[in-house]
Amino acid sequence: MNTMEFCAGVARINITPETSIWMSGYSYRDRPSEAAVHPLWAKALAIEDRNKTRIVIVTTDLIGLPREITDLVSTRVQQEYGIERSRIMFNSTHTHSGPIVWPNLMTMFNLRRRDERVVVEYSRRLGEDLFSVIGAALADLAPAQLSHGFGKAHFAVNRRERTPEGVRIGINPIGPVDSQVPILRILSEAGRLRAVVFGYACHNTASTGRSYQLSGDYAGFAQIELEKRHPGATAMFIMLCGGDQNPNPRGSIELAWSHGKTLAAEVNRVLGTVLSPVSSPIQTAFENIQLNFAPHKRQTFENELEDADPARVRRANAMLRAYDEFRPVHQIRYPIQALRFGSDFTILALGGEVVVAYSLRVKKEYPGNLVVAAYSNDVMSYIPSRRVLQEGGYEAVDSMIFYGLPGPYADNVEDRVLDGLDAVMRRVGMCRKAPGNEAGSVDGTDRGLPPVSDQEPCQPL
After folding, report:
1. Integer Cα distance of 267 and 275 in angstroms
2. pTM of the predicted model, to two decimals?
3. How far is C-alpha 5 from the chain's CA centre?
4. CA–CA distance, 270 with 151 (Å, rounded to integer)
5. What is the 3-state composition of the chain as percent helix, strand, coil, each rounded to the nearest 5?
């Protein structure tokens, strides 16, 4: 008789493009991919608790999954398997050495029709592959033991370098970083390692845009190294709040390999220690909130049509089309999700390229063993803190050009995100443990705002 609290199933599917394809992440690339260093994968972990509640965690070696794909796949999974949206989590490694995933970062490139057809067809097949890998993981369910632990890695550095001309992408050795490496281990009933889920808060940009070879960057190499060390096991990487973090040093595939081996060695070290058990039941919550953009006018984009930067012109045309169709872009949908295992372990999954300060604050304010993931369910833009927004620079302003968005977020973006995640956390019984600090920003400065109000009573487990 099985006395274990969980069943788990694991599956993978090869999502390496079958032909040369334009790569995402760097606007200065001028031609499609040349080869693949290793296969790119979509992997799925299905977990069922003692109450027959099922969740699925999907990881992908991609720049990001747009909601146009995740919404469609989630709807099909709910119809086919009865798993509601709050129980399906998608995460991408944000490798800058992977293919374009349409329509993510849609204004970064001006593709020829032939190249665009390749990208669109790849994204269509990707949706089919994600649905298939979820079904395969659910079909693989078997009794399992779940446990968690935490390690550390130190090759990430804050990239928001302050200069007399403003903030630029560089190296900021005194900027905030998150060195934590969370680990979720899944063992079979016999004690064999079936899967390990691990994360880190750092851009997958070690190989940079000079490379035209497809790869998962350091996260891809870390997964390969772990699977070599544990034959038969599946390694799954979850990208955390690394929006303003880069590997250091960086600049080659060899450095990506080196960082990947460093990360894999730390995960392997933690796997050899005594980990803490994870218990039932599983509770989930999912909500889409609205984030506002700073005010803008049609004239702004008419003027931008004269800009020398082709990406700015493409963004201007997209915004003017929206004005012409009487739907100017003033808001965007933002997903927030929580997966909580008993009172032992919680994953908070945020959409977009979230800067590290959010993770540092949330883990300080909420109790328990908390993983704060970004790049989850939709990657629509960077999510700046209030300080980053005020400082400007790539994460706050310039990146919006490539995401095809009208400009920076409104001043209340940090407040909206914090209020939204607090509401989601409350629905899984996670209450703030430091309510006296609610008026401070995620960067530790005074927001000049009243404390976040309690939208509903919080009932801790």
Report:
1. 12
2. 0.95
3. 28
4. 6
5. 30, 30, 40
Cα separation of 419 and 440, whole Å?
13
Contact 96, 209 (CB under 8 A): yes
Q: Per this entry, what is the length of the chain?
A: 461
Tokens for 300? 């702004």
| Cβ neighbours of residue 158 closer than 8 Å, sequence gap 6 or more | 171, 172, 173, 174, 175, 176, 177, 244, 245, 356
* Spatial separation of the C-alpha atoms in residues 72 and 76, rounded to whole Å: 6
Residue 129 zone, left/alpha/beta (φ > 0; ψ -120 to 50; rest):
alpha
Please provide the DSSP assignment of 3-53 as one string.
--SEEEEEEEEE---SS--PBPS-TT--S---EESS--EEEEEEEE-TT--
Cis ω on the peptide bond leading into residue 99 (within 30° of 0)? no
CB distance 365 to 432 below 8 Å: yes
Both tokens of residue 382? 């960077």
CB within 8 Å of 111: residues ≥ 6 apart: 22, 119
The 8-class DSSP code of residue 243 comes to T
Residues 6+ apart with CB under 8 A from 121: none
Cβ(15)–Cβ(29) below 8 Å: no
Residue 352, phi-psi category: left (phi > 0), alpha (psi -120 to 50), beta (remainder): left
In tens digits, the chain (461 residues) has pLDDT values of 345 899 999 999 999 999 999 999 999 999 999 999 999 999 999 999 999 999 999 999 999 999 999 999 999 999 999 999 999 999 999 999 999 999 999 899 999 999 999 999 999 999 999 999 999 999 999 999 999 999 999 999 999 999 999 999 999 999 999 999 999 999 999 999 999 999 999 999 999 889 999 999 999 999 999 999 999 999 999 999 999 999 999 999 999 999 999 999 999 999 999 999 999 999 999 999 999 999 999 999 999 999 999 999 999 999 999 999 999 999 999 999 999 999 989 999 999 999 999 999 999 999 889 999 999 999 999 999 999 999 999 999 999 999 999 999 999 999 999 999 999 999 999 999 755 444 467 776 543 333 444 445 566 55
Place of tokens 């390969």: 224
Helix 253-271, helix 217-229: angle, nearest 10: 40
Question: Greatest CA separation found in the chain?
Answer: 72
Spatial separation of the C-alpha atoms in residues 140 and 46, rounded to whole Å: 8
